[in-house]
Design goal:
By secondary structure, the chain is α+β, with helices and mostly antiparallel strands. It is 11% helix and 26% strand.
């Protein structure tokens, strides 16, 4: 299992820049479900920029491109979603959900649907932007006029 799925979307930055070899394995998720359920936490479309994504208080978000797909990761530590998009049409083509407290199929902590980049993603330098959304009452997250705290 990829470390970014366990640690949440903020790990994408760690995996891409600090220790890419530690973040991959040959594990392929065995638990699959219908896109309508697995992708329910994903926006239907995504144009590749966090500026267009609602910044939910306390949520970690990261965007990377790999293997011809744009991936948006959103999470709260050990719970999160990864959403894969076609970069031309911006349409959702893959959804992955992780929850260490609610196992899915036979004790799997992840469930997936659709297409995703290979297990070697994100590659070094692949992370386009990341941010942690401020908590309630902290300026900088809800109003995205200033970029909503996006670091690129």
């Amino acid at each position: 299992m990829r470390l970014s799925l366990v640690l949440g979307p903020a790990a994408a930055l760690f995996c891409a820049s600090v220790a890419p070899a530690a973040c991959t394995s040959s594990h392929v998720p065995e638990c699959t479900g219908p896109m309508s359920e697995v992708g329910a936490g994903c926006p239907e479309t995504f144009a590749g920029s966090l500026v267009d994504v609602m910044c939910t208080p306390g949520q970690m978000q990261a965007v990377y491109s790999c293997d011809g797909l744009d991936v948006l990761g959103m999470g709260y530590g050990f719970y999160g979603n990864e959403c894969a998009y076609d970069p031309s049409t911006h349409v959702l083509v893959g959804g992955r959900e992780l929850n260490d407290l609610s196992p899915y199929c036979q004790d799997s902590i992840e469930i997936s649907a659709g297409r995703f980049p290979g297990d070697v993603c994100p590659r070094p330098g692949a992370v386009i932007a990341s941010r942690t959304c401020p908590g309630p009452g902290v300026d900088g997250g809800a109003d995205l006029a200033d970029g909503g705290g996006v670091s690129e």
